[in-house]
Amino acid sequence: MKKDVSASNVLFKTLAKNSEMSMPSEGLKGHIYMSLGIIALTCIMIPCCLAMGLVSYMLSTSMMSAEGLTLPGGFVIEGAQMNGLATELHILSIFSLVFSLLVIFNVLFFSADLQHLIPLPFKPVEILRGRFFHTYMAESVMEFMILLSVFIGYMVAAHQNLGVASWLGPVQIISVVIGTVLTPMLPLIYCVLLSFFLMLVLKGVHSRKIFYHSSTVLLLLFVALFFLSFSGMEGINMQNYMDSVAGDRNLFLTVCNRIFFTTPFLMGAIETGSISDLLLYLGLTSLSLYAMLAIGGKLYPACLYNAAALGEKKKAADVDGLRFKVTDPFISYLKKELKILTRTRAYASNCVYINLLWPFGVFILFYLNRNSDGMNDFIEMYIDGTYPRAELIVLLAVIAVSFIACAMNSLASTAFTREGLHADVIKYLPMNFSAQLRAKAFVSILLTWPAVIAAILVAAYYLKIPAPTMVFYIVLSLAALLLSVMTGLLMDSSAPYTEWSDEYSALRGNLNSFFNMAVAMLIALFLCAIAFLSYEFVHIGIVADHFIVLGVIIAADIPMLTLGRKRVLKNMQEMY
């Protein structure tokens, strides 16, 4: 057993060293990346944690306030105070399960370094253990912080509503620490077991696509379960959901308590300080991990064989249909970029399809709140023009979405990283660096701007935004995208992460994407502050305020499209 553990430790350390981008630590680049890390911590991680803590506090307070209330029909609410916290943990676990499934598939079966690991004197269970724990740590760092914020939000609510003694006990504190570390483990265990099951059952498929669609099916099942939990209620809204959760009558909560069966014991340990519940939580989590490793040790070799056989049956090439013709180099390069992005599952889901979040998100925001007094009042004030702050809020939303959309899809911040180990081939292409840079920038805008325009059109439909104002917002979004795209290209060209083993590592291990998101949020915050302060304190008219923001963005675009472009081209020459 000691040999197995030491071998797994060697694999874990090797994977941790080789699968993450090394950040420059010396010279000017080192200082820049250190500054970007501080910006990322300030603009992304801390705000996310504060937001999740606030949501947990508000939800926990509502659940605790509902304790003992009598609902229509004489039903008395009991045991509701932990349901809000349990719901949050279940939602985080579902996200881990859905979005880690494809990562597990690639790490266990499709990673490029497997061909080097398998011939080495490692047992299958050693490879599985090393890869599992590395993925667990790499995927859960941000989740640890969010979980801790959720627990702190609950404890603050418990202190205010239930008294100090209800949350300050040593068992509760230990339970919170253990829950923070172990909550992401069970979903990842499920991912491994599900990947083994699918690889064995669907071994004759000879295509990876069906495996990649499994996460989508899983997400749809949980979404369907969530909406089914509203059956018998008067509409789908947050109040109805909270009422059903408080009354312990929610289907979503009941089913998730069965799927993530360790969570109720953690809730019992935090609520009552029960040592037995805490030991049960630890024991069941450990037993699940041991069972996964035992099963995986037996099934992993067969699954690797099936993974290697995927894609063997291919269509014969239609030689007569192959037509070689001379095309414009820029168009050819553009097609190459689009094909890579749309045909590679990791890039398609994380860089292309994620842009649909914005129009659908805006639609859901207005649709689910269509009967809300607050939303209807806001729409009426915007249409009437009697409340200029409503127009200011829409302006701030357009600014934020325009910058964050480009940073979130990572199209620009992975433009050079996506080339991988074949990046040096670029210098042999029959087109200069300037044309290649234009193609990469154009792809980012081509895949991002239409989604932002669609989101603006959805908002325009509900808010009855006049056509001239709508056109202004579309132009504003383009100006913001140009600045965001060039920022991403500048950062990725400065230190591209090209030594990745699979496409998911290219996205997850690329610090440029994370830092670009922080910079985009900082720029958006700065512009929103200009718009807000100009209106509220300088008392500039709302129309003039719109044009001031647009002027500031264009003023920033000019040096970025000239000096920034030259810097990217220089980075490309030094890179290759």
Verbal overview:
This protein has 576 residues and is mostly helical. The protein has 2 domains: 23-311, no CATH class; 329-575, no CATH class. Helices cover 75% and strands 1% of the residues. Strands 1-2 form a two-stranded antiparallel ribbon. Helix 6 runs antiparallel to helix 12 (263-272) and helix 19 runs antiparallel to helix 20. It is globular.
Structure summary:
The chain has 576 residues and is mainly alpha-helical. Helices cover 75% and strands 1% of the residues. The protein contains 23 helices and 2 strands.
Low-confidence segments, given as residue ranges, are 1-5, 69-77, 312-322
| Helical content band | over 70%
Query: What's the structural domain tally?
Result: 2
Distinct helical segment count: 23
Overall 3D form: globular
- Sketch the topology as an H/E string, one letter per element: HHEEHHHHHHHHHHHHHHHHHHHHH
For the biggest β-sheet, the strand order reads: 1-2
SS-based structural class? mainly alpha
The share of residues in extended strands comes to: under 5%
Rounded Rg:
26 Å
Cα distance, first to last residue? 47 Å
Total strand segments: 2
- Major sheet attributes: 2 strands, antiparallel
Query: Taking all residues together, what is the mean pLDDT?
Result: 81
